[in-house]
Amino acid sequence: MSEVSTARFEVTVAESEAEHAALGAEIVARAIDAAVRARGSARVALSGGSTPGPVYRKLAQMALPLDRIDWFWVDERAGDPTSPRSNFRAARADLGLDRADAAARVHRMEAEDPDLAAAAARYEALLRRTFGVASAVAFDVMTLGIGDDGHTASLFPATGAAAIDDRLVAAIGAQPAKGLEARLTLTAPVLCEARTVLVLARGAAKQRPIASAWSEGPEDEVPARVLLRAQGRVVWLVDRDAYPTG
Ligand SMILES: O=C(O)[C@H](O)[C@@H](O)[C@H](O)[C@H](O)COP(=O)(O)O
C-alpha cells in the first residue's frame, strides 16, 4: 500500500483486491468509531456498483456497534428492492445486515415507487428528520464509486445532475441510450458535506475518469469533480491499475 495527499484529497493505492477491501473496511470502521465516540451514533451512506462488495463483506466480519449505526444509501436504481440490480439488496447482504440478529437500522430509498420524485421527497424528509431540520446533512462516512464516464452516485454526465443544489435527493430519469434505468440519488451538496468520503475504484478502466475527476473542469462533464469542493476528508482508495499514471 502507498499513500499520497494533496490539498484536497488523499490517495491510497492498494496492491491487491484483498488489501483494497481491508483498507476500505478499516477507513469506514474508523470513521464509524470516531462518530460514535463523538456523537453517540454514526450515519453511513452506501453506494452500489461492483467495487464496494468486498469492502462491505470485510466490514461484515468486523465488530461494529450496529446498534449505534444508521445505514443510508447514496443512490438506488428504479425497481424492486429484491431485484438483482438493487443497491439496497446488494449492500445489505454484503454487510450482513439482513441477518435477523443484526440490530440494523437500515433506511432504503423506495425506488419501487413509480413516482420517483415523491420517493426522493420522502427520503429527503427522512434525512432532515434524522439530521435535524436546522443542521447540515453531514454523513459520518460515505462510500462512492466512479463510473467509466466520470459519474459518481447517480450524477451522470451531460444531464445537469451534478448542478442540482436545491434538493438533497433527486430523481434521475432513465437513459435508455446508456442502458440506465431511472434512479434516486443524493445530490452534490450532500456528497460534499460528508465528514469522510471514501471513493472506491479498481481496474484500468478507472484511470481516465479518475484523472479527469482530479482535474478542474466542468462538473457536468465529469460529475465526480464535485468532490474537489468537498468539505470533509476525501480518500480515493484505488488499485495500481486504476491509479492515473499520465
Ligand atoms: O448505483 C451505482 O451503480 C453506483 O452508485 C455507481 O455510482 C457506482 O459507484 C459507479 O457506477 C461505479 O461502479 P463500479 O464500482 O461497479 O465500477
UniProtKB/TrEMBL annotation:
One of its GO terms (biological process) is carbohydrate metabolic process. InterPro entries: 6-phosphogluconolactonase_DevB (IPR005900), 6PGL (IPR039104), Glc/Gal-6P_isomerase (IPR006148), NagB/RpiA_transferase-like (IPR037171). One of its GO terms (molecular function) is 6-phosphogluconolactonase activity. Keywords: Hydrolase. Pathway: Carbohydrate degradation; pentose phosphate pathway; D-ribulose 5-phosphate from D-glucose 6-phosphate (oxidative stage): step 2/3. Its EC number is 3.1.1.31. Residues 17-236 form the Glucosamine/galactosamine-6-phosphate isomerase domain. It holds the Pfam family Glucosamine_iso. It catalyses: 6-phospho-D-glucono-1,5-lactone + H2O = 6-phospho-D-gluconate + H(+). It is an enzyme of class 3 (hydrolase). The keyword Isomerase does not apply. Belongs to the glucosamine/galactosamine-6-phosphate isomerase family. 6-phosphogluconolactonase subfamily. Hydrolysis of 6-phosphogluconolactone to 6-phosphogluconate. PANTHER family: 6-PHOSPHOGLUCONOLACTONASE (PTHR11054). This is 6-phosphogluconolactonase.
